[in-house]
Structures are given as C-alpha cells and as structure tokens.
Amino acid sequence: MSYPPISEQLDDPEGAREEGRRKIDWASGHMPILAALREEFEELRPFEGQRIAMAMHVEAKTAALTETLAAGGAEIAIAGCNPLSTHDDVSAALDANENITSYARRGVEGEEYYDAIEAVIDLRPTITVDDGGDLVFRIHEEHPDLVDGIIGGCEETTTGVHRLRAMDEDGALRYPVFAVNDTPMKRLFDNVHGTGESALANIALTTNLSFAGKTVVVAGYGDCGRGVAKKAAGQNARVIVTEVEPRRALEAHMEGYEVMPMREAAAKGDVFVTVTGNRDVITREHFEAMKDGALLANAGHFDVEVNLDELSDLAANVREVRDGVMEYETDDGRRLNVLAAGRLVNLAGPLALGHPVEVMDQSFGVQAVCVRELVAAHSGGLRDRLAERLRERLGRSDRLEAVGEDTYGPGLHEVPDALDREVATVKLAAEGIDIDALTDEQADYMDDWRHGT
Ligand code: RBV
C-alpha cells in the first residue's frame, strides 16, 4: 500500500490546516524576497510542467518556499528531512494546495521516514530540493532509472553539500546539483546567525535555564560554530571551542575563546553544543569526565555527534525529566541531560521553530532562484523573458545572458554569483537600504591589472 499524505494521517486535518495556515501566513508576511519571486513566478509560470520533489524541515518558512514554487506552476511532493522537525499543522496546510502533496509528519520512526521519501520520489521528479541529501542519495541508490528525467537539484545544508561533494569526487553524482549552502547569502546569515540564535533559543526554551555565568563548549568552529560561540558569549557565557582544523582553532583563539581538546573541555562545560557535521564528537571518555547536570545539545544536521549508545551503556537510569530532555544517570550519581534526543536542537526540540524567518527568506530566496536557473538553462524563451523582467526589476540582467544550454552538467555546482547578488539586491530594496554603485572609471580601474602606484 502506498504511503498516505498527512491529511489522511491526522484525526482533525481541517483544524490542523487552519492553524498551519496561520503560521505560514505569519512567516510569509516577513519574507520579502520570496514575495518578490512569487510575484515574478505567478506572472511567468516558469515551472509549468516541472515536478519538484522536496525533502526539508516542513515548517512555516519551508511552506512559504514550497508555495512560491507552486505559484510558478510546479507540481510538488514534499517529505521531512528529519524525523522530528515537521510541524503537522503546516504539513496539512500545504497538503491542501492542489499542486502540493505533503507526506511529512512529526515523530516518524525508522523505515517510515524513508517511506515518506519514497512517496515523494513516486512523483518522478524533474527537480529535487534537498536538505541533507537523503533524496539525491535515495534516487541514485534505489531509482537510477529516474536520473535521466531530472534536470537538476538544489542542496540546502553544509552536511548535504559535503555528502554531494564526496559523491561527485567518486564520479557517482549523475545530475547537476547547486550547492545553495555555500553562497554568501545563505552561509553568512543562516549558518552564522540562524544556527547561533535558534540553537541557543531552543536550549533555553527547552530547559528554562540561563546561559549567563555558565561555560558553553562549542564543538566545531565552522560557520555554525562561529555563530553559536558569538551568541553564547553575547549571553554572558564563558565559551570554550574545540576544533580539529588548525586555522579554525587559531581563529577561535584570536576571537578570545578558550581552545582545548574535548578531553579537557568535557570536565569544564555546563552546556555542550556540537556543530561539527561529524560523528562521535562526544563519547564515553568525555561523559565520564562531565559535571553533574551538564546539558548536551546537537545542532549538526545528523544525530551522530553525541554518541548516545555509549551514554546509554554508561547510564544506570534513563528518564525524561522535561519535555525534550532525557536524563542519563551514571553509576556514580551524575546526571547528564540530552536535549531533543541528540537531533538538531533548533528544529527537533518540542518547541522548536527552526531558524528566524529573515534568514530563511534569504536561504530560500537562493533556493528559488536556483530552481528557476535549472529551468532557464533548458529554455531559451524563458531565459529571455526572465532577462527582461530582471532588467525592469533591478535595472540589469548580467546573469541570464551568461547561461547556455550545456552550462550545468552532472555534478556539484557553485551557485552563479549573480544569482546571489540578485537575492541580496531584492532584500536591500525591501529593507529600504540604498547603496553606492561603481562609476565606469571605478569599474575599469578594478578590471585593469596595469594600474599600480
Ligand atoms: N533550517 N531550516 C529551518 N525551516 O526553520 N531552520 C534551519 C527552518 C535549515 C538550515 O538552512 C540548515 O542548513 C539546515 O536546516 C540543516 O538541516
């Protein structure tokens, strides 16, 4: 039997839809980039005939992206990209759209998670939009026959891009995918500010405890770790950073944080936040050294950073002490508290809302223009109409003229910088911020290597 959409899984789909609609409307009302793109898509209908498969955190901002793509004429099927991050009411509201089928439900266990992804793949997509790479991976592993019909995909997050890069290096990635995560408009805002704010907000909401005066150990000083460390320091915590990369370790040191191995940090921390994208960052030897009452949270994409199997082995007692907080009591009477089952705390916690709306508007703005770009690369007519529209809207069209039919072959692709600039320009306009423009002389000067002293 095929896996049912959310509306067929809920007792009161009508009530859920109404509440989900309220949440989506609030988020959409604060997403000016998506609003501008939606207007363009409604007019040009660039996605007519396209089938888009999505696996993402199904909550209000993601719903706004999904509806924006549907407004451009796409038929869409969506599933979650984490067993705990779906908001069922939002999922139900999306499912009510005649061009969208949502299979996402919170709390799916084991195989059910992949059943929903399989249901999405049944759409026989022409485009995939992923957060973490499960969709691309599953299509390549289980449905290689679909690859020829796929014009391309977009990947939202660091972990997914990392996975796709490894696939690409092995020659295993068989269609083009844009590394949305790596753009300045995504990475420097979503990863830094988004993860920093939402991870700390959710730790605070889940525990009702303060950061002030505590020692927060941040494992991993990439873009996400940088954000978590900065915001924790901003809430009066002492911050310790652990790293494996010498330059990042040095950067954290120069930022004023203490840097040390996890072996030493384990005994000092009151709160631990893992943001490495790797597995086994906190393990048995660390649990053995931790203080009574330590809080452990993960903000990396997968739930592999805190080794819960080893913690369970150590624990004499395990009980849920608060919604979203599992207490592991060791033989020597220390209580270690794991938040959101070691899944990414900013989305999987009981009260989690994900990143703030503004940063997701930017990330999803990049997603939307990347989907548009994949389609435009296959259609000269659409490209011309988009170029005209862009000239009207922004007074330029540098991006589209550069795109040719064969621009994007199989493999991982950087997002063209002009697309990212387009998203930034729309956002600045929405904020009412005007900036300077280069004069012709300045542009010539920057391009001419002959100039010197
Ligand atoms: N993320 N999505 C949300 N929809 O509320 N919050 C964070 C949301 C994305 C973010 O872009 C990050 O790269 C990814 O989740 C990690 O899975």
Automatic annotation (TrEMBL):
Gene3D superfamilies: Adenosylhomocysteinase-like (3.40.50.1480), NAD(P)-binding Rossmann-like Domain (3.40.50.720). May play a key role in the regulation of the intracellular concentration of adenosylhomocysteine. Its EC number is 3.13.2.1. Its main location: cytoplasm. This is Adenosylhomocysteinase. Pathway: Amino-acid biosynthesis; L-homocysteine biosynthesis; L-homocysteine from S-adenosyl-L-homocysteine: step 1/1. InterPro entries: Adenosylhomocyst_ase-like_sf, Adenosylhomocysteinase-like, Ado_hCys_hydrolase_NAD-bd, NAD(P)-bd_dom_sf, S-Ado-L-homoCys_hydrolase_CS. Substrate binds at D131, E156, K186, D190. One of its GO terms (molecular function) is adenosylhomocysteinase activity. Pfam families: AdoHcyase (PF05221), AdoHcyase_NAD (PF00670). It is found in: Cytoplasm. Keywords: Cytoplasm, Hydrolase, NAD, One-carbon metabolism. Binds 1 NAD(+) per subunit. The gene is ahcY. GO terms for biological process: L-homocysteine biosynthetic process; one-carbon metabolic process. Signal peptide: none annotated. The keyword Repeat does not apply. One of its GO terms (cellular component) is cytoplasm. Residues 191-352 form the S-adenosyl-L-homocysteine hydrolase NAD binding domain.
